[in-house]
């Protein structure tokens, strides 16, 4: 597998010089895979440097490559599920906030919001007046 990945990277060297993002990401993933990284390093170093690092590991055994692939796949799967759950939590909080705001009556609005709003506005007016008298 390592030699196949290296050959695929060698084939993409023509696009590396033009700087396509897909190729750099591919090189980064292959490099992490062949180095046995503990987690994906979303790092896009110099493409020639990555290619040299990939070439050095061309003779890795298939077992090492497959073990690294399984490990990185599980890490990425876990991170994607965490991101998905955080997005759902944020969306749920947003929906609850909107529901609570629509239930807020005029009386509640005045009793909870008006007093701090008045204090804030009064503070800003006093601040603006002091700046105007100084200038």
UniProtKB/TrEMBL annotation:
GO MF terms held by the record: hydrolase activity
Location of the DUF629 domain: 1-80
Keywords: Hydrolase, Ubl conjugation pathway
Record-linked Pfam families: DUF629 (PF04780)
UniProt-recorded name of the protein: DUF629 domain-containing protein
Organism, scientific name: Noccaea caerulescens
